[in-house]
Amino acid sequence: MLGSAADNPYHETRSGRLTAWGNALLGGFAPPDDAATAVAGTDDAHRVTGLPGDAPGDVHGLTWALGRLRVQGVKGLRLALPVAGHPLGLTGPTSFNSAAMGAGEAVLAVGVPLALVPEVERYGPEGDRGVRVLWQCHVVNDALPADVPSLDEAERELADGLREATRLLVRLDVAGAGPEALKALETYRRRGHSEVLAPGYGQRAVRVLESARQVSALLGIAAGGHGAAVSATEMAARREALAPLERTARRAQVAAYNSFVDEPR
């Protein structure tokens, strides 16, 4: 979904962190505890349930669960970032696709037809809220993920996308916001990431992800109403004009995360 200027397109999804650091762990580039800490981020705890062989109600720590998946033959992880009308990275069946679509994200295993979908629980009083994440394991179809480009394709699409985003910003008079638009973009960058991807990823994947986030930031500014005053009808026209670029940015993000298993290194 297109966000507002208050959103942060540089924010890394939980499934993105699990994909990147899970791959670093499975590839021998990061120790288990470091990977689990990076995946959790500022969340209080991440647990996994529904693994093959689990009894109902079994719940495991993330480090143990990743080790269990490796023993069962998982060789790597892929990211999915689906939205309504665009099942990016999904493989089916319908039950898994529905769960992933509801979460807006998922992680698919490579080598074993399994996937993990996060369920996020927020608790505690306003101003002192905690977050717990439970990853539900699903059996999925053994098929290639939908609509994921190669890094080559993603990089070409992003180059075109950046030019188109700039053109649209001018046409929609977002550029007329001047300092306001620039301040919003700088805010995105300051609130961004301290590290892109995880150990073991190539510089090209990092570059593609950075470019995808820049496109998302520009689109967030445009969708947030910067520039000339616009009516509801004009805002709808903005969203329609920007939607193809949002898809390009999401496809590129998925390609960058999945390059660990999909691209020669």
Give descriptors for this structure.
single chain, 265 residues, alpha+beta, 6-stranded mixed β-sheet, 8 helices, 14% strand, globular, disordered N terminus
Topology readout:
Elements: H1 14-26, H2 32-40, E1 45-49, E2 59-61, H3 62-71, E3 76-80, H4 94-103, E4 106-110, E5 114-123, E6 130-139, H5 151-171, H6 179-190, H7 203-223, H8 232-262
Parallel strand pairs: 1-6
Antiparallel strand pairs: 1-2, 3-4, 4-5, 5-6
Report on this structure:
With 265 residues, the protein is α+β, with helices and mostly antiparallel strands. The protein has helices at 14-26, 32-40, 62-71, 94-103, 151-171, 179-190, 203-223, 232-262, and strands at residues 45-49, 59-61, 76-80, 106-110, 114-123, 130-139. A six-stranded mixed beta sheet has the order 2-1-6-5-4-3, with helices on both faces. A hairpin with a 3-residue loop joins strand 4 and strand 5. The longest helix is centred in the last third of the chain and has 31 residues, at 232-262. The protein is globular. The two termini are 32 Å apart.
Order of helices and strands: HHEEHEHEEEHHHH
Low-confidence stretches: 1-7
Structural class category = alpha+beta
Radius of gyration: 19 Å
Outline type: globular
Q: How many beta strands in the DSSP annotation?
A: 6
Biggest sheet: strands side by side, in what order? 2-1-6-5-4-3
Give the helix tally.
Answer: 8
Mean pLDDT: 85
User: Approximately what portion of the residues adopt beta-strand conformation?
Assistant: 5-15%
Q: Largest beta sheet, briefly?
A: 6 strands, mixed
* Helix content bin: 40-55%
State the separation between the terminal residues, measured CA to CA: 32 Å
